[in-house]
């Protein structure tokens, strides 16, 4: 039996739809940022920028969230989500305010040391 674990919201949503007794807990949840980028001088840079514009458009993000509840980055998309769907999305304001942002700089500076300490503890 598993009482609690960490995972992506989409996996819990799929399990929930399949009838599994799983739920999300937002207080103390962790969230991170991802980024789109186009390599300078890319031969298909214009196409890449059009894709990024499409992927960030409110309508596209709402459709995406309807299929897998990962948080939209466009505030207009977030406002369009029905309340039932928003309850599964980490970037819904009520969920986001209970979470903690991942501190990438901390992990760059301390990650290796903490991994070594964790592995030493776990191997006892």
Automatic annotation (TrEMBL):
Key word DNA-binding present: no
UniProt main location, coarse: periplasm
UniProt key word Protease: no
GO terms under cellular component: outer membrane-bounded periplasmic space
Pfam families: SBP_bac_8
Superkingdom as given in the UniProt entry: Bacteria
Protein name per UniProt: Extracellular solute-binding protein
């Amino acid at each position: 039996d598993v009482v609690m674990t960490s995972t992506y919201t989409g996996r819990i949503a799929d399990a929930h739809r399949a009838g599994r007794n799983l739920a999300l807990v937002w207080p103390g949840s962790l969230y991170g940022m991802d980024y789109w980028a186009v390599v300078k001088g890319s031969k298909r840079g214009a196409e890449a920028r059009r894709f990024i514009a499409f992927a960030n458009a409110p309508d596209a993000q709402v459709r995406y969230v309807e299929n897998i509840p990962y948080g939209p980055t466009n505030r207009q998309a977030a406002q369009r989500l029905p309340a039932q769907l928003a309850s599964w999305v980490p970037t819904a304001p009520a969920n986001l305010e209970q979470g903690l942002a991942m501190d990438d700089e901390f992990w760059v500076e301390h990650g290796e040391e903490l991994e070594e300490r964790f592995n030493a503890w776990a191997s006892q």
